[in-house]
Sequence to fold (99 residues):
Amino acid sequence: MDEMMRTVSKYPNGTCLKVSWDFGKIVIVGLIDTIFETNNGLEEDAENYREYYACAFKVEKIVKNWKDINIKQGQLIEISEYNKPTGIEMEDGTVIWRQ
Fold:
């Protein structure tokens, strides 16, 4: 488990977080839904096969979307090393992880 996922996994499902990508160009507020182990979709015997941990994150509010990414309120998105944000904060603004 990478450092970011170790940090996020300390909080229970339902915890509200503010997550930002690209140093604030995309900012969403949402809830931790589930933390799970997954893989990169390759066959297990493939050379680049990789298992990793991810967080299913339910979008409650889109604060900024300057890159016009297709994100909708109520949708689940994956937070992981393959969709790594640049910052994660608690609802009160306390930073829990920064890239």
